[in-house]
């Protein structure tokens, strides 16, 4: 629990999205979570793919409770009780697993989802949501509430075309400013130069993640995020850089919005895990 002197800063919500499936949302969500956690930050990954979520598999954990239970019991859950529904990974990262069967996706409502995320904000520095493909009706409000939207593409024409359309939709929703583009597998063979992608999509910059199928596939198949098992590989270096970029942006925002340094203070002072943990 935070003391009066150490006012708890509410966790930041990072929505990981893509216009196309199979593009790397889950791989990047779990590895980003562990990379942030290595910076002594409390992180929860929420499986926002309500039908076929595989965050638990990607981190090799067996959840006792899932989002289905949270949805069913949402009226009885407060900011303390929510931690009972999370599954702990050995790194300390927490997971709110997706429903175990696709038909349970219907139980998920936008209202209950927003409440869940707000409850999680009290005990975490970052809430990473691994969204389903595109923009799901239940998740629109969640995207509106997110602090950052990581929109993932790769160099394939279909991915780029759909990402552009999704950018336009996000602009119409008035939330385009929160988007940070991620060009995954940017070293893959393609007629399109990775460096041209941000401009093509109307962005100034992007995070670039290299192509490394062996390590990516191992990470997902073994359920051991590569930032743990292969912390020096090209993919891991890119993920740590991304984590730094995200932390850096939050620091900037906190300083400019408060004139104070709440999260900055938390990061620079040797805050131990567990001090603010759930
Ligand atoms: N940087 C990368 N290098 C090589 N392979 C990658 C990379 N990123 C993702 N992949 C591969 O792409 C596939 C899809 O990854 P992942 O499951 O994370 O995508 P997803 O967007 O979550 O998919 P879905 O839409 O089904 O949820 C996996 O086989 C993964 O190994
Ligand atoms: Mg996925």
Automatic annotation (TrEMBL):
It comes from the Bacteria. InterPro entries: AAA_dom, P-loop_NTPase, ParA/MinD_ATPase. GO terms for cellular component: cytoplasmic side of plasma membrane; cytosol. GO terms for molecular function: ATP binding; ATP hydrolysis activity. Residues 12-173 form the AAA domain. Pfam families: AAA_31. One of its GO terms (biological process) is negative regulation of cell division. This is AAA family ATPase.
């Amino acid at each position: 629990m935070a003391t009066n002197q150490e006012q708890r800063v509410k966790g930041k919500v990072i929505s990981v999205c893509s216009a196309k499936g199979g593009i790397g949302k889950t791989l990047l969500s779990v590895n980003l979570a562990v990379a942030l956690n290595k910076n002594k930050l409390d992180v929860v990954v929420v499986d926002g793919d309500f039908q076929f979520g595989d965050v638990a598999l990607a981190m090799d954990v067996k959840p006792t409770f899932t989002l289905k239970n949270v949805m069913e019991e949402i009226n009885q859950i407060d900011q303390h009780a929510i931690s009972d529904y999370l599954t702990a990974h050995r790194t300390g990262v927490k997971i709110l697993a997706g429903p175990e069967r696709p038909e349970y996706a219907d139980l998920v409502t936008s209202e209950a989802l927003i409440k869940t995320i707000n409850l999680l904000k009290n005990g975490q520095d970052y809430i990473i949501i691994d969204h389903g493909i595109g923009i799901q009706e239940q998740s629109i409000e969640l995207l509106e509430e997110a602090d950052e939207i990581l929109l993932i593409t790769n160099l394939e024409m279909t991915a780029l075309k759909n990402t552009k359309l999704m950018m336009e939709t996000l602009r119409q929703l008035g939330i385009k400013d929160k988007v940070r583009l991620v060009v995954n597998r940017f070293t893959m063979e393609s007629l399109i130069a990775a460096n041209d992608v941000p401009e093509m999509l109307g962005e100034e910059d992007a995070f670039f993640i290299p192509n490394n199928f062996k390590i990516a596939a191992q990470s997902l198949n073994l359920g051991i995020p590569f930032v743990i098992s292969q912390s020096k590989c090209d993919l891991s270096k890119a993920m740590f850089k991304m984590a730094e970029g995200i932390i850096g942006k939050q620091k900037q925002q906190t300083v400019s919005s408060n004139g104070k340094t709440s999260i900055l203070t938390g990061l620079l002072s040797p805050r131990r895990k567990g001090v603010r943990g759930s």
